[in-house]
Write a structure and sequence with these properties.
The chain is 76% helix and 0% strand. The protein contains 18 helices and no strands.
Amino acid sequence: MPTFPSHRGEQNPTTAEAEGSWLAELTPTERSTLIATFGGWALDGMDVMVYSFVIPSLMAAWQISKGQAGWLASATLLISAVGGWLAGLLSDRFGRVRILQITIAWFAFFTFLSGFTNSFWQLMLTRGLQGFGFGGEWAVGSVLMGETIRAQQRGRAVGTVQGGWAIGWGLAAIFYTFLFSALPPTIAWRAMFWIGILPAMLVFYIRSFVPEPEVYRKTREVVEQGSRSHFLEIFGPSLLRITVLTSFMAIGAQGGYYAITTWLPTYLKTVRGLSVFNTGAYLIVVIAGSFAGYMVGAYLTDRLGRRRTLILYAMCSFLAVAAYTYLPISNQGMLALGFPLGFFASGSFSPMGAFLTELFPTRLRGSGQGFSYNFGRGIGALFPTLVGYLGARIPLGRAIALFAVSAYLIMILAVALLPETRGKQLQVYE
């Protein structure tokens, strides 16, 4: 295990915080921002993960190949990469809260519209447009949360928001189990997309209870007085190394995650031969592991530091994926391994929001964080497609493992070269 340098501004958690009282200590503004971003990410996760459950139905209804099914997943992620960076740029200019509302309404509408499509290309269009808002929601919400929460609790708070994704994934699994049991498959997959309109309701809460972060407001005042900055500064000499390394970190985390989660329901149903009910039950175990992984990762982010936590989770994800897809285990063994698979693959995202917030300066935070995370998403978006094509030539489990394991190796190398930022105080126009 490599050594990890400490940041000079590092602060150790107090005993009370370590015991979990930090939630009670949040100010009203911090609490409302936490609720809004947690809810946004949960509903975002539900809308995105719906597709992984309807892949078998679409392949049967439209006679599309695994490669084409992979492209439908990748199109959403590729366009979300563009949407994420654009939303980050706009949030630096027009505000975190305003852009967050727009992105949530956007992805909800196009998820709903996907339920009315009748061909591969129609769904490609609506899924792509959905991805535009999906990418922006995380980019803006993560910056908003990171700037609102105080330094001592930033890792836990931003990591906790990541846990919303597991809640959304769980909702998608519940709807899948219910709808595909109660409705004909030709209607059930459409209903899965129609429930995607629900996130639009969250916009009203954000509009009423979530203000702009103080550090952002003060930075905008400085910018408007003449201290200009340009979004391309993230590629300048002072920030290029951070931009490149955080992009590779994001490639690793997201490439591994999407290679696993996009194809897992199909793997369980077509390779392991599980029924709709049993597939849902297995996924609930994985999702429960995901939520626990997010929560533990959030705690460790402030306790161990950003780098230690990221490397620990990436190494364990590497091992869990290899065991899940390569070992000759029974269905009961897969059920047991599902928990650590979800725990580590999902929990590796917990430190990323706070880490990226602290690595980029306030005046460029939306642009820098939006680019790095979403560049990683754009490259990682290719992994489901590549798994689909390779899965037509070798066993699907091995195809998933090949790309996921490679991704986590990339992540480990990138994180090892980045500085530790735990406890860093955000500055106005830094």
